[in-house]
Amino acid sequence: MRQSLAQFEAAFLEETVVDRARRERLRRAAVKRSRVRRRQRASRNGTVRFSVLISAMLGTTVLVTIAMFRVLSLVFA
Q: Per residue in 12-21, pLDDT tens?
């Protein structure tokens, strides 16, 4: 009976160690996935912001050019 109890205790301790290692591994994997998602989200948001910036600059350029030529046509007409 004592040997059986000692074996049970040893198996329990081994299972506890394995379970802790598994939980730690899962936690690290979750942290890694979180970092990857955050990096992807930041990259996607950066691309959208860059596109909006370029569109705003082009729109401003077109509007200023049109306004400049209209004013010039009024001045020289």
A: 999 999 999 9
SS3 at position 77: coil
SS (H, E, C) the chain: CHHHHHHHHHHHHHHHHHHHHHHHHHHHHHHHHHHHHHHHHHHHHHHHHHHHHHHHHHHHHHHHHHHHHHHHHHHHC
What's this model's pTM, rounded to 2 decimal places?
0.59
**Which of 31, 30, 53, 34 minimizes the C-alpha distance to 42?**
34
| Cα–Cα distances in angstroms (integers) from residue 25 to residues 11, 21, 39, in the given order | 21, 6, 21
